[in-house]
Amino acid sequence: MNSQLIEADERLATVFSHYYCVQQGPQDAPLQQQLVPNYEMLLVFNFGPAISGSLGDAPYVISRTAVLGPLQKTLTYELPAGADLIVVNFTLNGFYRLLRVPMQELKTQDIHNPDVLLNKPCFEDIWSQLAQMTTLADRLQLLNEYALTYAAPADSTTNSMIESIPYVNNTVVEPVKLLATQQQVSARMIQLTLQKQLGYSARELVRFLRFKKVLTFLFQQPTPSVDWLSLVSEYGYHDQSHLIKDFQQYMGISPRQFINQLAQGGMCISKPGKFY
């Protein structure tokens, strides 16, 4: 397998974080991978055989283009021989800025056709242009040009909210009230903005970001022997059952099952965002 993680153009760094580009040779054995939850949106362009997998318990098949997310469950997929795909990994509100689709209309267990979301054959046309190109550089240049043309500028309120995430994540204060005070707007406006542009509440995001820190620690120090009580204390969980509940919520498995799967390989975690 030939895979590359390519950073976004600096001009687009607040829209998406990176491209994930993968190719499998025609004789390569099928390869199963798992991406742990990241609460971000993915836009997939597939130029090879159909890709099958599941998002949580929901199965899917990607033929050409697809939108997945916000990823609140584990994404499992199998790369067949001859696989050739580009995945655009959006920032928290980057998908909304590019497609302007209210995020609360999307369901996390669903896979979406982007042209159905837009009600026009935009991404099918882009796929056709990309499929004719012979180099990855040309493909990424076309995608960059499209995003630069159509991505809406971020509004100052949402920008400030996202920049405040590290502070919200480290406080016991109700996150919406804290953000409302910082931005000098109503709590209701904060709630509506987050649901529209991110697809979930500040409370949901704070809960997930804590769990992502646990996952990041475990990825960086994979070992079958984990001091779970130390993790509970380090990351602010009430007790071990509280941490187990988050593993069940996001991963669908227990902490020990996760460690076993991590040791077997084939499990990935997304790169950190700028503010989360």
UniProtKB/TrEMBL annotation:
Keywords: Transcription, Transcription regulation. Residues 176-261 form the HTH araC/xylS-type domain. It comes from Fibrisoma limi BUZ 3. This is Transcriptional regulator, AraC family. The keyword Protein biosynthesis does not apply. InterPro entries: DUF6597, Homeodomain-like_sf, HTH_AraC. One of its GO terms (molecular function) is DNA-binding transcription factor activity. Gene3D superfamilies: Homeodomain-like (1.10.10.60). PROSITE patterns: HTH_ARAC_FAMILY_2. The keyword Protein biosynthesis does not apply. It holds the Pfam family DUF6597.
